[in-house]
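Let us practice reading a record.
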Amino acid sequence: MALAPTVIAHRGAREAAKENTLPAFRMARELGADWVELDVRRTADGVVVVHHDAHLEDGRMLAQLNSDALPEFVPSLAEALEECHSMGVNIEIKNLPSDPDYDADHLVSDAVAGLVLAYLGPERALVSSFNIDTLDRLHAVDPTIPLAYLYDIGEPASAVARACAHEMSAIHPYDPLVTASLVERAQDEGLQVNVWTVNDAQRMETLVGYGVDGICTDVPDVARTIVDRQTPSPD
């Protein structure tokens, strides 16, 4: 019998609280999420913090600020991982060459690997990125940490092949790219399929029917209801 898809709260329960904050992660747990997805970047003093964009709302760039200059609502990754106790955490590393804070040395990968070891362990962690070089660096630092190739364009066969070639555990495709055949192809290669970002209940039902491994959503309470209703309980 197939396992129930994992409910992954996208940036925490961002429909109920400010995204990528400790309250959003707490709310995710309360609303039934199995995992939290969050975004990380590196500050000028080398601290990994949880924030989606390279810049704060006031225009200041995180990479040019020390961590003690950040607004109180921006947590360090360490603080976030403490808050996410009992849940798994999908850490998305933001480090594309087109980003204003791009770090070609991938120092953020080194730091993330250490924090995963300290707070989660491989069984509760999944590190994803659009940048395969960033994931390759993390894999070189600690090959036990599961990795996921995040993508929003391209052919399914190419995404699966790249993930396999780089020894990843999962693909994270953008929802409009997901078909039953993609799920089957990826799973046949030993990859999990975690889909982002899905907020429509009917689409969630379709994805559960495809047998996806995870649904990343802004509304984890809705996903929890759909997953529990559509997945038979084991005898």
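A brief commentary: The domain at 38-134 is CATH 3.20.20.190 (TIM Barrel).
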